[in-house]
Amino acid sequence: MSSPCIISVAITGSLPQKQNNPAVPITPAEQIESTHEAYEAGATLVHLHVRNDDGTTSSDPERFALVQEGIRKHCPGMITQFSTGGRSGSGAERGGMLHLKPDMASLATGSVNFGSIVYANSPQLIDDLAQRMLDNDIKPEIEAFDLSMIFNTAKLVERGLLKSPVHLQFVTSIPNAIPADREVLEFMIKQFKRVCPDGTWTAAGIGKYQLILNQWALELGGHVRTGLEDNIRFDKDNLAKSNAQLVERLAGMVVDYGRTVATPAQARQILGLKPV
């Protein structure tokens, strides 16, 4: 039997602007509409960043609340995942929206170089965010940017700050972090399965590497991610018209690789989330 594949859509991120691609959704209304279109195209998990009206990054809980409310109304069963990433805030501010109890939230389990900057995640901050997710019954998606983060994740499970089964995303192709390299990915998957044997995983590629990581994840039995956060282009000659266009193409790839697109109910079951 073919295994269902969860399609995650990262609709906005913290970097792309409308001058880069007019389809990037910025306001809560735009984000809700873009997510609904992606949901209808096959996405069952939405990764959310919020922005101020001028396009700058934000961790404003009121904005997260507005977007989450709209998604839950218009996209029945879709998994909402809040970003606690460093570009949207600093320190405890990064978890300031977790009281809204999304289904999931991102959690980086170490620091890493991003191009010319350092994405700082101190051990204390990691513990604090993990504890807040635990207190609010939120399942973390571990964002792994290098090998050490896999083993840091296993230690959090041992310490009771993470529940099994763990869900982890391998984020590749950011300069100075994990390269988009098939052998490296397979090695990291092997290590993850060794220390978190009941875990599930997704692989993500940035920019021109988005499609190749989708292909590798499908071949290796993982789940997939797309969206304007990772790639504003549909191909080298054309900007993506919408998040839905990227999801629709990926849904076709899932079928081409002999798998099925997970329904919201299946995605929740795979990730151990409560049914709606």
Summarize the structure in words.
A hairpin with a 2-residue loop joins strand 14 (233-235) and strand 15. With 276 residues, the chain is of the alpha/beta class. The strands form five sheets. Strands 2-3-6-7-10-11-12-13 form an eight-stranded parallel beta barrel, surrounded by eight helices. It is globular. Helix 1 runs parallel beside helix 7 (243-256). The model has no long low-confidence stretch (mean pLDDT 96). It is built from eight helices and 16 strands.
Key features of this structure:
alpha/beta, eight-stranded parallel barrel, 16 strands
What ranges have pLDDT less than 50 throughout 5 or more consecutive residues? none
Radius of gyration: 17 Å
Q: Roughly what is the average pLDDT, rounded to an integer? A: 96
* Alpha-beta content class: alpha/beta
Strand content: 15-25%
First-residue to last-residue Cα separation? 26 Å
Biggest sheet, spatial arrangement of strands: 2-3-6-7-10-11-12-13
* Helicity, as a percent range: 25-40%
